[in-house]
Automatic annotation (TrEMBL):
It catalyses: L-alpha-aminoacyl-L-lysine(out) = L-alpha-aminoacyl-L-lysine(in); L-histidyl-glycine(out) = L-histidyl-glycine(in); L-lysyl-glycine(out) = L-lysyl-glycine(in); L-arginyl-glycine(out) = L-arginyl-glycine(in). It is a multi-pass membrane protein. PANTHER family: MAJOR FACILITATOR SUPERFAMILY DOMAIN-CONTAINING PROTEIN 1, TRANSPORTER, PUTATIVE (AFU_ORTHOLOGUE AFUA_4G00260)-RELATED. Lysosomal dipeptide uniporter that selectively exports lysine, arginine or histidine-containing dipeptides with a net positive charge from the lysosome lumen into the cytosol. Could play a role in a specific type of protein O-glycosylation indirectly regulating macrophages migration and tissue invasion. Also essential for liver homeostasis. This is Lysosomal dipeptide transporter MFSD1. Homodimer. Interacts with lysosomal protein GLMP (via lumenal domain); the interaction starts while both proteins are still in the endoplasmic reticulum and is required for stabilization of MFSD1 in lysosomes but has no direct effect on its targeting to lysosomes or transporter activity. It comes from Kwoniella shandongensis. Keywords: Membrane, Transmembrane, Transmembrane helix. It is found in: Membrane. GO terms for cellular component: membrane. It comes from the Eukaryota. InterPro entries: MFS, MFS_trans_sf, MFSD1. The chain crosses the membrane at residues 57-75, 81-100, 107-130, 157-176, 197-222, 302-319, 326-345, 351-376, 388-407, 419-440, 478-501.
Length: 505
């Protein structure tokens, strides 16, 4: 069926129900072939894309989805230095659970998964808060672990905003999480002093988690009121349609992730961890190298989260309009090298590198978050993809932060010089990876990462309709096993080094 005939049929409709019927009757083009070790990524293509979803449905959905994780983010932000072991324990579990949770999201559908995860978050928040009565440390740790559930927001954003403002919405979500973190950190101490009971710092976030659960339930009912043609497909419904329901219950969605996505994960080794290590040690570096008071150092460090609240959404708008995502990989790497040199190897005022790091922070996470839906090429696998990405990120961070601490401890002067050299070397690799990603983008996925949101959707659509053999969207078992083995080894090392260095066993 040609696009012209589809447009003529849609123009003749007068009601949403009529339009829904036209969309429901459109043909679906399945695509799956095999060539040796690689097999093409399977997906469906309809003649009407997601841009046909009315704006009112999108905005109402976003007004709820945006706040799904506010309670858990707020609870995480209230953990200050005295709860560091609790936070580390949850990070340790986060090396595995995101993958399991991501597979569950793809199977059950993001709406149901959001409700299920919110239930666990509420339970965990309540258990942690209850542990403050009588100083039950085990309850605090156990509650935090229960709250480590995979977020469903990325998959839902990809459904409602693909082809229009997807990067901008991702950026808004990142900015909102940063705002939540800033509010949580600044309010943690005042909350702990309410009525002389420090447990309020955990009970208030638990109450917010209840509201998030109610919001997830409200979204689930809202989604059922939207015309069926515009709803995110339930994972179970999609698998029934494919006739592979029993197969998809397992971790087999990992095998369906394409080659370019796995390569991105494997080559980003320790990149996010370098930023996390710098951030966690920033206040102490100021104190040791410049004699800054702890109070002033903490204040200076907090400033790096302010500028990205504005610049990150602007970066998302740029990606949607112009593309050029991988150019920001090298740009961000170069900025961080400058930051590390200034903060660790000179005595310039700390605000100079901190302000520069704000600009780097604005383009760091959003670049890769916006690239993942493009490299995966199939919204039905985004839960698993984001889960793998987060597992890599958490394992990387745990390993590098412990390694950085050990390196500093072995310094005769207790300086951060060797740690800074390591961070610079890691970010130098990121500068190199940018052009390589861009080259592979042109060779493998038709320069989709260079295009704006509308153009990249058209490239993927044409690729499927014309049965093109795009290497980047193939499923390569060799690549999956190599990078999957890398992740497995990284998780094992993370657990080992955590036990040895953090617990002292």
């Amino acid at each position: 069926m040609s696009s012209t005939s589809v447009e003529s049929r849609l123009s003749g409709t007068t009601t949403p129900d009529d339009k829904e019927k036209v969309i429901r009757d459109l043909p679906v083009v399945p695509h799956l072939t095999q060539t040796g070790d690689d097999e093409l990524h399977q997906t469906d293509v309809t003649s009407v894309d997601k841009r046909d979803i009315p704006l009112r449905y999108r905005l109402l959905a976003m007004s709820m989805i945006l706040f799904f994780a506010t309670g858990s983010s707020y609870a995480e932000g209230t953990l200050n230095a005295q709860y560091g072991t609790i936070s580390s324990a949850s990070s340790l579990v986060n090396t595995i659970l995101p993958i399991i949770g991501g597979v569950g999201i793809d199977y059950w559908g993001a709406a149901y998964a959001a409700v299920i995860s919110s239930v666990f978050v509420v339970l965990g928040a309540v258990i942690s808060a209850a542990g403050t009565h009588g100083q039950h440390y085990g309850m605090l740790v156990g509650g935090r672990i229960l709250m480590v559930i995979e977020s469903t927001q990325g998959k839902l954003y990809a459904h409602w905003f693909a082809g229009s403002h997807l990067a901008f919405v991702f950026a808004i979500d990142i900015a909102w999480n940063r705002i939540t973190g800033i509010i949580a950190k600044t309010s943690a101490v005042p909350m702990s002093e309410i009525n002389g009971f420090w447990g309020w710092a955990l009970w208030i976030p638990a109450i917010i988690c209840f509201f998030n659960l109610a919001l997830c339930v409200a979204y689930l009912f809202y989604e059922r009121t939207v015309p069926k043609a515009y709803r995110p497909p339930l994972g179970k419904d999609a698998h029934d349609k494919e006739g592979t329901l029993k197969k998809r219950v397992t971790l087999n969605t990992l095998y369906a992730l394409p080659k370019f996505f796995w390569i991105l994960c494997g080559t980003q080794m320790f990149q996010n961890a370098a930023v996390a290590t710098y951030t966690s040690n920033l206040a102490d570096i100021q104190t040791r190298t410049r004699g800054t008071s702890k109070l002033a150092a903490g204040y200076n460090s907090s400033l790096q989260g302010v500028i990205p609240v504005v610049l990150t959404p602007l970066t998302g708008l740029f990606f949607d309009r112009f593309g050029y995502r991988m150019f920001f990989v090298s740009w961000t790497g170069m900025l961080y090298i400058i930051v590390f040199v200034l903060i660790g190897l000179t005595t310039v005022h700390p605000l100079a590198p901190i302000i520069i790091s704000s600009f780097a922070n604005a383009t760091n996470a959003v670049t890769f978050t916006c690239a993942i839906p493009i490299l995966v090429g199939d919204d039905r696998l985004l839960g698993t993809a984001f889960g793998v990405w987060k597992a890599f990120a958490n394992a990387n961070t745990l390993v590098l932060e412990v390694a950085a601490g050990a390196i500093q401890d072995r310094s005769s002067t207790d300086s951060y010089d060797n740690v800074i050299y390591l961070l610079i070397a890691i970010k130098a690799l990121q500068v190199v990876w940018g052009p390589i990603y861009d080259y592979l983008d042109g060779r493998w996925v038709g320069h989709s990462l260079r295009r704006g949101e509308l153009q990249r959707i058209e490239i993927r659509k044409q690729d499927l309709e014309q049965h093109k053999d795009s290497p980047g969207w193939r499923v390569s078992r060799v690549t999956m096993f190599v990078v999957g083995g890398q992740l497995t080894a990284l998780i094992i090392v993370a657990w080992v080094v955590y036990i040895i260095y953090s617990l002292g066993t």
